[in-house]
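Incident log, structure service

09:12 report received: a user says their structure output differs between two submissions of the same chain.
09:20 pulled the input from the user's history:
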Amino acid sequence: MLSIRKIGVIGRTYRHLNRYRQILTVFFKYGFGDLVDLLKIDQYIEIGLQMISRHRRERLERMTRAERVRLAMEELGPTYVKLGQVLSTRPDLIPVDFIHELAKLQDEVPPFPFEDVHRIITRELGDAPDALFKHFDESPQASASIGQVHRAVLKDGDQVAVKVQRPGIRKTIEVDLEIMLHLATLMERHIEEIAFYRPIKIVEEFAKTLERELDYTFESSHMERMAGHLLSDMTVYVPKVYRELTTPKVLTAEFIDGIKISETKQLEDAGLDRREITRRGAHILLRQVFEIGFFHGDPHPGNIFVLPENVICLLDFGMVGSVDRQTREDFVELVDAVVHRHEARTAQVLLKLTTWDEKPDMRSFEKDVADFMGRHLYRPLEEINFGRLLQHLLELASQNRLIIPPDIFLMMKTLAAVEGVARMLDPTFDIFATAAPFVKQVKIARFHPERLTDDFLRLSTELLEFLQQFPTELLDITRQMRQQKFALPVELKGLTAMLETHDQSSNRVSFAIIIAGLIIGSSIIVVANIPPLFYGISLIGIIVFITGAVMGLWLLVAIIKKGRL
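09:34 re-ran on a clean worker, output below:
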């Protein structure tokens, strides 16, 4: 696990004094000297401040604050670049205007020497590269902040890509995280506007994310899981993972010799069909989101290759998303409400998909939703840009103090990325039309007999558990009242009426138990496929269920007539 020690004393701060000096130099360079003053950090690192000339700071007035933060992060190195990339997917943690800017962060750094690669592979895999591989290319194919990729050939001739973690990167990250936590603590203490975004929580969440990224076995598991989901789909390919040559610091996977999806000229020269590639790529990623609920979280052009016969190959599974069935159904409900321009319904579903500390005023919120829909939707669907729609949806949520959960935002961001890549290949691409069959499938699935049976069984079980526990809990309350452990002030007016109400309640509970028994029984009969069958469903089960449903409806009507639910 990553070690993050809270820095609250001068001794610990001086331990990282050089790194503090670097960070402060960048802060001043990009116009954040006022932030340093507010943090009162000079009492901790006076020596560092003495080495910085404020008069030499660059004037960056024409840049936005978000742009300056991005440039500062790029200059501060790998940990801060990763922080920015992670934050660009977290509208629940940072202001909306920073989301788009931080997504531009580049993760490109000079490669590290092959001597380090040789040492790490030998330590992690138990033998030198020349003993494990028939050939190992000393020059990396790509280099990033966490690791770099080398091409190699196994003894059996298989072409592989070997990702090797950068030496000392864990220690570098731990030092930066310690400093980040210290700065976050000072921000929460001294700067009210920043404290609202809970910077300490941001650092702690970031540490968890980095811990997973520093362990390549997570990425290998994601690849295998996705390959399992897409095994029957011949239009998509996920590289094979070589588990015996994979550790937390080394990942060995099948080498893919394809064409980047953004290389349109090469695609045409190879005789590949751009429109078919667009259709397949969009279909694959939409299926992941709406059908599987487990999806590639970073489908930019560099992570999508095209193989012969227009086969789509997905690379780099360091970032994935996961959404449960209920969330997918709620999101589909949102899409349906938006497409059909139901403003009130859109507002209601948005509240279901988000969290908030205080529920917004519904009249004002519905007006904001109406303005949002008027801005984007009163035009042909093919002309709607999903990326811009997402940006303004974030602004809408922010204005009303609504927080979009990370996985839901990542899902929406993935859909926006799909649209961007698709329109690069085919300007006529319509994401709404392409997603329509998946949306319809999710809506229909809610009413499938098997799904209904599962739901009824679950609800019936919960109801039965409640009915079983209720008498015991009621008895316990009565016993506590007798023992005078608590008392309730009660004023009896009309004992006869109370007894009649009690009698009615008892009858309703008894009736509800009978209805629950009928529903549970019908569900068991349906699952067991007891003949005679009607369209593959037990006719007896249908009859028993309808009987229970009618009785339940009658009971509901009786309760409503009394004016009490």
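09:41 both user submissions now match this output. Likely a transient worker issue. Closing.
09:42 reviewer note: The CA atoms of residues 453 and 523 lie 6 Å apart. The first helix runs from residue 10 to 15.
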